[in-house]
């Protein structure tokens, strides 16, 4: 799709905020696809409620040899943050069907959430050995590489998922983050826009696109995107901090301060909001 694009050697460490050259400010970065809820949602539609898990347990009681039943309940456990139980269910699914590549990819995600990146990588690799055309495994492994500071490998995996005509917006969004971190904002804008077209109700791609708009000096479009991100997800600390930065750049310190404060109410440890609030505490 993007054969003319080149991806150059990346810095060793990916920042959580993008420095705007000459602005002296820090822009809140996108952390999309890093949280358990967002990732589990992409692998299964099962909900993590106690009622739903109870229903899935009843299904397993009726069909104790059905690997798919364990895979679905494992995803529900993952959504509920019950990682040991999720791992146990994926283990059972794989034992019942050693070629169950979806269960390997799902278990890989839970291993990552549990902090075991080595086991996560092993499971993604196994899923792709079983099905080299499984786009979700490329996206999951790519995100694992991205978060581990291995951008070249991450980029290759997102590219492969896109070549497979994935309908998962994470492939474009995460590739956009890599372009963005390299300062290739025109390419990043294209990828974020594609992700938005696939998932128009997701806040994160709007935040990402706003970051690149602002880096390119397009303050109005950036502001629109940050406002849309907040409208879609009022609990998005990054969106509030990004909106605050635009207010700050426009000289409206009072509104900037309120938005930074809201960001910190949502995430008291969010560094861009803390530094922004410090800059705007007077005036």
Automatic annotation (TrEMBL):
Protein name stated in the entry: Tetratricopeptide repeat protein
Signal peptide: 1-28
Extent of the TPR repeats: 67-100, 135-168, 169-202, 203-236, 237-270
Alphabetical list of InterPro entries matching this protein: TPR-like_helical_dom_sf, TPR_2, TPR_rpt, Ycf3
Pfam families in UniProt: TPR_1, TPR_11, TPR_2, TPR_8
UniProt keyword terms in alphabetical order: Repeat, Signal, TPR repeat
